[in-house]
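Here comes a specimen:
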Amino acid sequence: MSTDQGSTSTDQDQITVYSDYVCPFCYLGKRSLEAYQGRREDDLAVEWHPFDLRGHKRGPDGEIDDSVEDGKDDAYFEQVRENVARLREKYDAGEMLDLDDLPDDVDSLSAQVASLYVKTEHPDQWPAFDDAVFEALWVDGRDIGDVDVLADVAETVGLDGAEIRDAVADGDLRDRLQESFADARQAGVTGVPTFVYGGHAARGAVPPEQLRRLVEGA
């Protein structure tokens, strides 16, 4: 579905994207970026950086504590539903599930650990894995917090499911992921998706035209 690259090469024009798999606007922003990429004459690589959308609710044990107040009431979530529905139509993403049809309380932490591992160890296969994780949640309604699901998703793109299971359980890799989250906060990222190019940023599922202006300055 995508031409995303996990590469850090400087030989190719590149945009940085901060995202979290459980964010509906990250899925929609990905669709917008794909549309922009498809209109370009030259390839545009994507440098992915993970972001923990619910990090402020994550306890010392790594679990999400839903009792932590975040100021997001019913009116907020109703506005989110309306915005998702509008952008789903705008970006021709009719395959995307309604928010109410998703599994309850999906935690993306394990998926981001797996994605970081694939990006590091199998960079050529990372774009397909990234796509497949997004689609597993937002199209198929699967719980990407479940290591069995992640192993199955990995196998669909030619990766070893057992290798992914080991990666998800790797404490050092989880520590690296937490460092990446901290780096994102230090860089001033407060929400996702955030697109960064040439020192400038655009936040949210912005349209392809805005991504073009971000990258091309016109």
In short: The radius of gyration is 17 Å. Confidence is low (pLDDT under 50) at residues 1-10. The first helix runs from residue 24 to 39.
